[in-house]
Design a protein that fits this description.
Aspartate Aminotransferase, domain 2; binds ligand KE4; 428 residues; 4-stranded mixed beta sheet; alpha/beta; Aspartate Aminotransferase, domain 1; 15 helices; 2 domains; single chain
Length: 428
Amino acid sequence: MPMPRPRSQQAFERALRAIPGGVNSPARAFGAVGGQPIFIDRGDGPFLVDIDGHRYLDYVGSWGPLILGHRHPRVVQAVEDALHKGATFGAPTELETELAELIIALVPSIEMVRMVSSGTEAAMSALRLARGFTGRDVIVKFAGCYHGHVDSLLVQAGSSATTHGVPTSPGVPRNCTADTLVLRFNDPQGLVDAFRLHGERIAGVIVEPVAGNMGLVPPSADFLTELRRQTERYGALLIYDEVMTGFRLALGGAQALFGQKPDLTVLGKIVGGGLPVGAYGGRADIMKHVMPAGPVFQAGTLSGNPLAMAAGLATLRELRDHPPYARLEELGRRLADGLREAAAHLPHHLQRVGSMWTLFFTAAPVVDYDTARLADTARFARFFWGMMDRGIYLPCSQFEAAFLSTAHSDEHIAATIDAAREVLAAEK
Ligand code: KE4
């Protein structure tokens, strides 16, 4: 039984009366692990402190944005400076151009970029642009991949849609998903077959180049290669959803890590440094179709918000000036080795790419949505609470990726492995 957290309990009961499910996003509801969410007082480097005063080593990092940990001084200072000039103007600022130029400098496939306020908004806009640019309607996605709560993509979505057993949400009219083709992740032959049948009608394919929303599932080399080959062959756009992987797996994202070049890229999380930013960008000839340069409509009151731009700029500049990727790879490798050893007596697969990882409690390697869902979610829930009560805060679902930050140290990794060893010793 989880340790008592009375103030979070009271806060949750109060929130339930005002907010559906007491949370502003189902991913935070602890639905997959039972119990109730903890309410946070503050973040501090690699730590979260809840309102009962408990401190946790944070492997969620706000679901990915906080690659620099909580309250990085460079980010805090940048936002403070921006705030003293005003929070928003509804008119352009040079901060927006500076962040756009930096994104273009860091992600080679991006020649132009538009800011929005969330990853969902970026994915939704990229889909509309792909359809507007090609004049086609069909969009391909992959079971288990999540691209935000876009109506036409809420079909076998990952993340909390999986957790809450809502593969296709009520409220999405049938015709919204009529043009959505759902294929199997890591299935190159399935891609070839689908394109042979539908290729001339496909506007775009959207993919998490490393899947994080069914738990961490790396791509097979031939999957990404076939994706690029088929989309080129049939004139469909290849859209990399790098909301989670962008600026995390490499400065240029997963596409840089794998030497791939999509037509469009969707960004979020790290690009806002913890404030609400999404972005979509890519080939200039495509992006010039976005209004007011072109006919594809998209707009947003707080798109390019100066405070969010300041946080994103400070974060990307820090990553550019002091690239942490070799360090994160070393920390991730050490953590993975230690967790595998702690779980050696159990069916498990620890899957990792750089600073993103998932400990699956399953005997088979997880290569797609079907194999992910074979995992023992009851065992994961016991693991989650056992780690929580030892001060380690993991994603509250087997179907989420965990994240390391530059604020995590060797000592933190060692403490995490020790805690896992204790918790898993009780599992048979
Ligand atoms: P947002 O609208 O939540 O900013 O981004 C949607 C999104 C798009 N694409 C990918 C690959 C994503 O991972 C996400 C959001 N990720 C989830 C966690 N798996 C956000 C957590 C939540 O929904 O509260």
